[in-house]
Amino acid sequence: MEKNKSKSLTGFFVGITIVSILYLILLEFSKNRIFGWPIAILVIAGFIVTRVARRERFKGFIAFLCWVSFFALLSVNLMISAPEEQLVPAYEGSKPSVTGIVHVKQGDITGVYNEDKTVEIYAGIPYAKPPVGDLRWREPEALEDYTEVRACDHFGPMAMQQVNPPLYNSLYDIIGFHKYNISLYDNYREKASEDCLYLNVFAPAERGEDKLPVIFYVHGGSLTTGQSYYSEYRGDDLAKKGVIFVNFAYRLGVFGYYANEELASESPNGTTGNYGLLDQIAALKWVKENIEAFGGDPANITIAGESAGSSSVNALCVSPLTEGLFTRAIAESSSILAKKPYHTFRTMKSALETGNKVMTEFDCFEIVDLRRIPADKLVKTKTQNSSMTVDGYAIIEEPYKTYERGANHETALLNGFNAKEADAFLLSTKATRDNYGELLKPICGNYAEEMTRVMPWNSVTRDQKFIVDAGGEAKGSLNHVYSAAWFTYSHKLWSDYMDAEGRPVYEYYFTKTNKSLSNFHAGELPYAYGNLWRNKGLYTSEDFELSDIMQNCWVNFAKYGDPNGPDGKGSDGTDLPKWERYTKDDPMLMEFGNERKMITDPYEDIYKVLDKYQESR
User: Of 335, 460, 438, 441, whose CA–CA distance to 388 is shortest?
Assistant: First the structure.
């Protein structure tokens, strides 16, 4: 009898231990507020005491009732301690050190220092009026002055977008990036809002009299998602190497790229469909006017971006509204220079058709009606608003035509792509020898059969020119062709245009593997912008060495228009590999991987087929 009681008690403790651990993990992953933890511990302890005190009477209906009460209390605690929506602090800690006052055109601001006080961070600086109410779907308007000193110690909210629950984000970080950081300062939900037009400035704390070059970074996210404060492209480390780094939020999705004829008629510039791009231009103008107050050189601004941010950089290079606002461009893993871009760009006809679908979806007949739809409902539209368009104002013609005229603005270009650009986008696609050709038709059309001859289904296993196996046989070959079409082909075009204009261009190919995102799409970001230290356990000394080289190349390019710098060294004295200038006749790329060396572009044969397909469209 006593033996059975002992087994029962042991089973109870095993069960309650498992339940308790899983529940506490749920609290952590869901970012519940701190007070939920002691409540949970009290509930668990109370349940254990009740079980031990009742002993043999803890069975039947009584046991059932106790277990139901236990789980009910845990559920209530999960609800009442759910994370509140908050802004992300620029300094993760309880007592950040505040900077001195900086005067910008609209008023006075203060920022905060990073942990070792080597970098000043000015977060959440407004650069235009909030685009809410009647300002929804209008060009960004200039700010009014503010009289009190503004504390810029929290990043502004992310642009309105569909936001996943914290639990989803935690699991996504663990499964997708193999990372997770436990902190006492992140028990909240990140705020998303239409009121999102804020920028951030990272500046070295110790600055001499010389004005510093500026890197103006446009975040990616398919023009539908993304935040200005994402840890992979924060500017702390680049600032330490002698640049002013700026990033910012801009309108996304239906708020940033919705098009409607009524909106065009009410605009003084006749524009619609490019509100997010116009925000980017407004932020760039703000930087041009104010960056000198932070020690930056308004005559030496380099625009940079990755993925949709890189497509946006391409658009900024052709926009007549940006002439004289920047000098150089850094573009990573996207462009809109194909004659018919594969993504991030659409015709006005297509944009207006999508705009009409939005009207119908929300039972609206006029823009005044659609402006009344709450943002949290409008953001759930079933339509896709993730592309720029030729509006006759921000973009006056297809971008490739501007380059053919030599009317693009960047004086030098650093651009490139990663080894596995398309792999993550094709995870659910099953490719075989039999269906390989059919799967190529969406990106090759009638030239799919020719592509199968240039890039046979088993190319990856039989052709060693591909540095990275993208999945083996048919799937690997498919991934490479899609990587070329979606992400790298437009960089080839961009580099060729720049070379034809006699402007310096440097192209790279990122192949470094690691325990996190590796060399997939966006994998280069923490290397180039110096954020490996935020997840040290995922990287080796070789990764940090490569990151230091890439950062110095990016900084040298911002300073001199040449990643090699004047002496082949970084600002910190790091020896850099010789990065040869790209030419159409000798299209060499710098491989950033276990080795740093010049290589030929592995996709050259694929580009020839894509050229034919593009011409046929």
Answer: 335
Kindly report the number of other CB atoms within 10 A of residue 461's CB atom.
Answer: 15
Reduce the DSSP state of residue 326 to 3 states and report it: coil
| Residue 513 shares a structural domain with residue 584 | yes
Number of Cβ within a 10 Å radius of residue 242: 20
From CA 302, how far away is CA 170, in angstroms rounded? 34
Tally: H helices and E strands in the chain: 21, 18
Instruction: Give every CB contact of residue 79 below 8 A, 6+ residues apart in sequence.
Output: none
Sequence-ordered alpha helix ranges (H) in 152-259: 166-172, 236-240, 253-256
Q: Which residues of 549-558 are buried (b: 16+ CB within 10 A; e: fewer)?
A: bbbbbbbbbb
- Give the span between the Cα atoms of 395 and 533, in whole angstroms: 39
Full 3-state SS string of 227-250: CCCCHHHCCHHHHHCCCEEEEECC
Residue 227 CB neighbours (<10 A): 21
88 domain residue, yes or no: no
Q: Do 146 and 254 share a domain, yes or no?
A: yes
Q: Does 430 lie in the same domain as 332?
A: no
Task: Establish how many alpha carbons lie within 13 A of residue 535's alpha carbon, considering only the half-sphere containing its beta carbon.
Answer: 19
75-95 pLDDT, tens digit each: 999 999 999 999 999 998 888
User: What is the mean pLDDT for each group of 10 consecutive residues in the chain (617 residues)?
Assistant: 62 88 95 95 90 68 83 95 95 91 97 96 98 98 95 98 93 89 89 98 94 98 96 95 97 98 97 98 98 98 98 98 98 97 97 98 97 97 97 98 98 97 93 94 96 86 49 83 97 98 98 94 97 93 97 98 96 93 96 96 95 93
Domain enclosing residue 36, as ranges: 2-80
Beta partners for residue 575, in sequence order:
569
DSSP element (H, E) containing 292: none
pLDDT recorded at residue 554: 98
Q: Residues 20, 147: one domain?
A: no
Residues 6 or more apart from 418 whose CB is under 8 A from it? Answer: 333, 487, 509, 510, 511, 519, 520, 521, 522, 523, 524
For the chain, what's the residue count? Answer: 617
Q: How much is the CA Rg of the chain, to the nearest whole Å?
A: 27
Instruction: Give the other-Cβ count within 10 Å of 112's Cβ.
Output: 23
Could you give the residue ranges of the DSSP H alpha helices within 155-302? 166-172, 236-240, 253-256, 261-266, 275-290
pLDDT attached to residue 464: 45
**Residue 214: phi, psi to the nearest 5?**
-120, 135
Q: How many domains does the chain have?
A: 3
